[in-house]
Amino acid sequence: MAAISRRVFLKAGGGVAASVAIGVPALTQAATSSAEGRVNLPYPMNAITKAEKLQVNTPVPFSYPDAASPCVLIKMGTPVPGGVGPERDIVAYSTLCTHMGCPVTYDPGPRLFKCPCHFSIFDPEHVGQMVSGQATENLPGIVLEYNPDDDSVSAVAVEGLIYGRQSNLL
After folding, report:
1. Which sequence positions are flagged as catalytic?
2. Contact by Cβ (8 Å): 72, 58
3. CA quadruple 90, 159, 115, 64: dihedral positive or negative?
């Protein structure tokens, strides 16, 4: 068996790399889709409730952007960052903890989301900010839209990544 010199090995490797690189644009071009160049995926608009039906500090469960994504909408009673509605006090969040995906619950006493698995705490009055615990990210916020014509509150997008997903839209 003849030994291959370093020079021959590098020449052969370079030739293989060049031939692969020539074929890659054709493969890439064939794999493009209608979403090429999009930064934001198209979220659905889902009506949740009417603002007049909401009670202060009482969570309203819903799912968004799909049935496998539990969320909660809350009328805080005072204006909050990102709030919508006549008083700018309605917010919504995913209820999957950003640490390991355990379902968080809203505690109306201290007005906080609490994770029973590893004791992370999130503040809905401050854009779902992580207050303490194992989590390192805020709860994903559900972007809401308020329509004064019919008093409806709708979910239109998600800010942040829902736990366990590479994309919020499946």
Report:
1. 99, 118
2. no
3. positive
